[in-house]
Amino acid sequence: MHHAYLFTGPTGVGKHTTAQSFAASLNCLKRHEEEWIDACGECSACKRIATGQHPDVLEIAPSGNFIKIDQIRAIQKAALSPPFEARFRAVILDQAHAMTEEGSNALLKTLEEPSARTLIFLITDQPNRLLDTIISRCQRLRFGALSEDEVARALPAVLEEPAEEALLRVAAGYGEGSLGRACEVLESGMLEQRAELIADVLAVPADRARQWLETGERYGKGNSELQAQLDVLIVYFRDLMLASRAERSRVINSDLDDLIDQGVARFALPDILRILDALMLSRERLRRHVNPQLLVEGVLDQIRQPSQTL
């Protein structure tokens, strides 16, 4: 085993789960010292690790926007002492890229002087923000995006409430390779609301500017809801692009055939591509805290007059 691992890849594809499973496999009470087997998931050690209650598995995540120096010092302290009861202590550092410069330098010292009974897992979807010296001291494992089939098959096991088979497939498409993202989409109720949103956008005639403004006022309420609404529109116009290219089998909103047909009849392919660019640019601007109302009005104006240059 290596003393430090760096798990990189998109969010929601199992990096944190794998780190937890690794820690459980090391400390499972049913594993003999000379064996290397999967954790049983049933002993007290496995159950406490799964629920984040094991004293020898330290999980650290950003406090606010950053991982602070005090949190890194907790790692240093843990690495200097033997585990309380387990064979190995595991430290799982989620969103490791959020460390401050001071924290990164402090962690580097711990990585340079590894403890024989402490393993450190760094998890990030932005490895480019880590110090090269930290990366060089870890064994790196890259996690790729999951296929839609893999996500759809895995969803029933992780959802709190059961969902219809058709919605599982749609959610897998919205997840864009992320099981975690697909779960969020289903549990947010966004899929049940997407038909209403798309119908509202298509219902306003292009020459009724006032109605477009009223629609903008209705949807530009807050960042969290607008993020989901932009995601719906991006996937919808991506579906229109595919349908316009006779690739209907790849459409994600496969249960909204009537709305897909309306969109294909209304928008030419060059206009669909321009609208998609506007939507994705707006999603990026929303993350930079641009005024939601202005974003919505800009997006709707682009949909109303798609031939207008961005």
From TrEMBL:
It holds the Pfam family DNA_pol3_delta2. It catalyses: DNA(n) + a 2'-deoxyribonucleoside 5'-triphosphate = DNA(n+1) + diphosphate. This is DNA polymerase III subunit delta'. SUPFAM superfamilies: P-loop containing nucleoside triphosphate hydrolases (SSF52540). Gene3D superfamilies: P-loop containing nucleotide triphosphate hydrolases. One of its GO terms (molecular function) is 3'-5' exonuclease activity. It is an enzyme of class 2 (transferase). The keyword Cell inner membrane does not apply.
